[in-house]
Structure formats: structure tokens, C-alpha cells
Amino acid sequence: MKRRELGSQGLEVSALGLGCMGMSEFYGRADEGEAVATIHRALDLGVTFLDTADMYGPFTNEELVGRAIAGRRDEVVLATKFGNVRGKDGAFLGIEGSPDYVRRACDASLARLGVDVIDLYYQHRVDTGVPIEETVGAMAELVAAGKVRFLGLSEAAPGTIRRAHATHPISALQTEYSLWSREPEAAVLPTVRELGIGFVAYSPLGRGFLTGRFRRPEDLPEGDWRRRMPRFQEGNLARNLELVERVEGIARDKGVTPAQIALAWVLHQGTTPIPGTARAAHLEANVAALEVSLSPDDLARLDDAAPVGAAAGDRYPDMSTVDR
After folding, report:
1. Count of helix runs (H) and strand runs (E) in the chain
2. pTM of the complete model
3. Closest CA to 50 of 276, 257, 297
4. Active-site position among 56, 122, 177, 202
5. Beta strands, E only, the chain
């Protein structure tokens, strides 16, 4: 497995990670046994960068990941997040970044994961009511206490990233990035590259849309969160399918799947993608993307097929990257 360094503080991860969110929630019913088997297969293949968060489940995804890595902790670079507050009933209760909450959230995550230290601890979303210096200052205390090794931010804008990094070195910035979500190229990617911060790309397959598996809203499972997302709505879906079909044509010419060429493109940008799956077969297909090389002609064709802003609809119905 190829390796990549995130930031300049010494954090090294597998070039491809595994997003674990869908193993517990959001994308229809999941099979826990299959999910654990997928994590074990990932470790066997060298995909050792695992991504979870306290809100997934809620709370149960960290427990699942903890059970899956028991006995194999030394093989894993474990990332989790705090800041999206949820009740035990699943209700979304807002965003929290106060120092006291940071400390309590970390202790709770450590207990659920069954580990002594979190390798990469992200603020999941920016709390506009708390100065970023206070939040990151509390996160830095966790590093000093030996509970966390490296710090990260998720969905933060350039000004916030700079202020956070000035408070304590930030090793990774995680944001959605794919052939149909190229917004970070305008300002976020240049900022993290300037500061020497690693970029972790979540949803590098466009929440599965770039695989070509979803042609109609009905193709998504009942209860699937994507049914409420603007890009999967009837009005936008047809336009977005045109983008997918263009990518599919390029993939056919290369003799690979649309998912593999989409992942290869994200890898080529120097970022670390963390495609999510709960199935070992999909994981293995994703790993094969590491062997897909893209020529200048391939890259030009992909850029023409999926230029910045090509996707129809917003990423989320109610979220934007926050600067403060």
C-alpha cells in the first residue's frame, strides 16, 4: 500500500482510507457483520486509515470501529470527529466547539472506540459562536495530555484554517472533493498547500453517484439520506447523469470502472480520499484505483467532462463552509 504524509507533523497514512459512516447510518440499512469483515479486509490490504465520528449512528459507529480493530490497534491510523451534537434518539442538536465540550467529547470517543489515544481528531463542523482559537486551544490540550496525536478540521474555510493553524499545527483538512464537487480548488486547496496541511477528500465518489449505480431516485434504498440531497432530486438528477455518462465513457476507454477513474483523479490531485463502503467487494475495487495511471490526455478529458461547477444542485440542503 502506498503511503502519504498528512501535514508536516509526522502523520503518515495509507494513500487510500476507508470512510466508515455508512456502516451505521445514512445510506440505508447496514449489516454490522459485513461491515466488520470489510474493516478487517481493509487492514489486510493495507488500508489502515479509518474515518469515523461521534455523530455517526449516533455514537454506534465508533463502537463498531472499536470492536473491529480490537487486537489490531497498532495497524490502524484512527480518525474521529466531534462538534455535530446529536441526542441518543438521533436528533440533531446543533454545533458545539466550546473547550469543555471538546474535552468531554474526546473522553466519550476514547471510551466508545476502546482506545487510549486518537490518531487524528477533527472538529467536524465550525462552531460560529466560539472563536476557533478557543476550540483548537482545547484540542491542543488533548495533544499535550496524550489523548490525541494530531489535529484536523472538517469543512472549514481559509480564514478559519489559518487562525486554527496559528493556534496549533493542523495536520489535515477534510472536505468533500470529487469530480462533481470541485469547490475546494478555488481557495481551500491552495490554502492548505501553502500551510503544509494535508487534504482528506470525503465522498470522493460523489456519495456513490459517480459509480453509475444510481439512475433514478428509486435506486436509492428506503430511508437513504441521499434522497433529500439536492443533487439527487428529480430536477437535478438528469443533468448530473450527463456528467456521469461522460465519465463512464472515459472509464470504458481506459478499461476501468467509473468509480476507479474517479478515485484515480482525486488521488492525482495529491489528496487522500476516504471512500466509504460496508462491502469488501467494493473496497477491493476501490483499492485497484491506486494502480490506475492518468495521462495528460485522460486528465484533460476528465476536466472537460466534469469542470468546476458542472454538478447541478447544492452539496447539502442547509450547509456551507464557514469562515469567521
Report:
1. 10, 12
2. 0.92
3. 276
4. 56
5. 3-6, 11-14, 18-19, 49-51, 77-82, 84-86, 92-95, 118-123, 148-154, 172-176, 198-202, 272-273
Q: With a cut of 50, list the residues of the chain below it in pLDDT.
A: 319-320, 322, 324
Report how far residue 286's alpha carbon sits from residue 89's, in angstroms, rounded to the nearest whole number.
33
* Residue with the three cell numbers 438528469: 238
| Residue 101: active-site member | no
DSSP-derived letter for residue 315 is S
pLDDT tens digits for 115-155?
999 999 999 999 999 999 999 999 999 999 999 999 999 99
The answer for residues whose C-beta is within 8 angstroms of residue 56's C-beta and 6 or more apart is 20, 21, 24, 25, 26, 62
Q: List the grid coordinates of 101.
A: 465540550
Summarize pLDDT for 66-107 with one digit per residue, the tens. 999 999 999 999 999 999 999 989 999 999 999 999 999 999
Distance of alpha carbon 7 from alpha carbon 13, whole angstroms: 11
Measuring CA to CA, how many Å separate 111 from each of 118, 235, 266, 300?
A: 11, 44, 34, 48
| Among the listed residues 107, 229, 121, the one whose alpha carbon sits nearest the alpha carbon of residue 174 | 121
